[in-house]
Amino acid sequence: MENDAMNAVHAAVATMTGSARELAPSLRLKEDLGIDSLEFVELIQLIEQKLSIQVNDDAVASVRDVGSLVGAVETSLREARAAAR
Amino acid sequence: MRSGIRRALSRVLRGLGGRAANGDRGHVTDDAKTADLLRARGVRVGEGCRIYSLEFSTEPYLISLGDRVGVASGVKFVTHDGAAHLLRRERPAVQFLGPIAVGDDCFIGENAILLPGTRLGDGCIVGAGAVVRGEIPANSVVAGNPGRVVGRASLLLRRLASGDNALDTFGLPEVERRAAIERHFAVKGQPHGK
Lengths: 85, 194
Prior knowledge:
By secondary structure, chain A is an all-alpha fold. Chain A has helices spanning 2-17, 37-51, 57-60, 66-84. The radius of gyration of chain B is 19 Å and the shape is elongated. Mean pLDDT of chain B is 88; it is low at 8-20. Chain A binds chain B through residues 37-38, 40-42, 44-45, 57-58, 60-62, and chain B through 127, 141, 143, 149-152, 154-156, 158-163.
């Protein structure tokens, strides 16, 4: 599951930034990757489409780095899979 | 009559610029005047709207705005496709028309264009400069030309509210508001009025 979330985040960031660079968990979305608020919303949409889930807005709204984003997506994915059972 | 309404609305909108951005108490009356002026032209305007554009096309009666809709300056509502002009030799009276409907709690950013037939669901945000057409689902952020849904409006609002540049300055007296903003961004502007 961690890989699913991480892969989805990495693929979405690559799509948004045009670069498939290695993403350290500490990389900041805005300051290091240049992803502003509008692009962040689009990033989440890409992740949701890839994983066929809807991420909780409150859980992701304040994430600032790649590691936190992966964690929030993992949580949403776990909840979605639990609800589906 | 039409030019008189336009002049009156222009005076209202000029006055709105500084006061409304600051949320002065006067904005409540000014917003009501703007809404009434647009209703007089045939636009259906819900309650609590803040409208800073005059561009409601030549068929304003085809436009409806829900409650609490924000319309930034430069926004254009287009209810007819002027390309019909190219068919006038064979069909002299032809017009291509389409209504525009905006749901409740929407915000339309600066210089956006809403084309004939646009329907915005409740709670949508249209990005500055977007060119929007067709049916937009509720709670969508629409951006770009052609406008496309890029995500959820509810998430964008939460993201912006959690950002470092979200300041609680709306409604403060202008001197205090400016001081707080300049402190936050560490800028030193010119003295007020110069």
